[in-house]
Amino acid sequence: MTNTTSGHRGRHAKVIATLGPSSQDPETIADLLEAGADVFRLNFSHGSHQDHAKAIAAIRNLEKETGQPTTILMDLQGPKLRVGKFQDGKTLLKPGASFRLDLDEEPGDNNRVQLPHPEIFKALRPGSTLLIDDGHLRLRVKNCGKGFAETEVVVAGTISDRKGVNVPDVALPIPAMTDKDKADLTFGLEQGIDWVALSFVQRPEDVVEVRKVVGERAGILSKLEKPAALDQLDTIVELSDSIMVARGDLGVEMPLEQVPVLQKRIIRTCRAKGKPVVVATQMLDSMIKSPVPTRAEASDVATAIYDGADAVMLSAETAVGSFPVRAVATMHRIICQVEGDEHYLSLMDAGRLETQHSSPAAITAAARQISQTLGAAAIITFTSSGSTTLRAAQERPDAPILCVTPNLEAGRRMGLVWGVHALVGNFIHKVDDIGDVAVKSAKKCGIGQDGQALVITAGMPFGKVGSTNMVRVVWLGDEANKV
Question: What global pTM score does this model have?
Answer without folding.
Answer: 0.92
